[in-house]
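ok trying this again, last paste got cut off
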Amino acid sequence: MSFILLGILNAQASGGGIPLAGYFAGGYGGSYISTVNKYLFADDSRSSLGTGLSSARQSTAGFADNGVAGYTLGGQDSGGQTSTVDKFAFADDSRSTLGTGLSQTSGSTAAGFANTGVAGYASLSGSSVINKFAFPSDTRSTSSDGTYSECFGFSNGSVAGYFGRDDGRDVTKIAFPSDTKTTLSNSVPANHESPSGFSNAGSAGYYIGGRDYPTYYQTIDKLVFSTDTVSTLGGTIGVGVYGASGMSNNGNAGFYAGGVNNSNWRNICQKMPFATETGSSVANLANTLWESSAFANNE
């Protein structure tokens, strides 16, 4: 549901003039959704892609190869759990579906991040298996992280990626390029079910909201990459939600959108500048939705 996020501040990509943008793909809002919402970082305007997901579904993972393409992986559709991987080319937002999907079907909490230019990683619900897709070939390999039900992911540039648990307090850190895994114990301050996550590469990762029923959290937690220590920020997101999704314009701001509060699906998208770590609303999503995937082009 969640995704990774790298890049620079410019409103235009350095190579080829591709506009920098973030995407929220699919989700559930009373029915399964195939719409892909696109937010231009130059002005925070929103549009819907002409071509959505190959099937309407929720609980997908997402990651991106900056300057090239974003990926939406797995998820639950009307036929059940899927292993489908959809790829969106940033040059024209066209969609293709990879011939090799996930190693197994996935239909609940899932998360992704990427080491841009090298590979994307997806952790699947109910499984200890991590799927790794090499860039640009999209060949897939698998490994185990020994944990289950990851629900958010982000990366610190080309240094490491992080997966957060859906039902616990541990975070799995995967060092690049060795893929060595370590566990950051008790790095989530409470048992937050389905928070969203995004990162500011070189600085910190953030996880937002979540639920420990009947409590819906409004908190913003920050993991500082230089020390891998976590603190809770003084500000909040205003309304507690779980199952939201996050992506970011690296060096500038993180975005989190959708989610559920007491069975009410939301279409709110908020932007949190890294300079102030305070959120405010931007253009609403096209749909109310829960458990979409997110990815961004920041280069």
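PB: full thing came through this time. The two ends are 22 Å apart (CA to CA).
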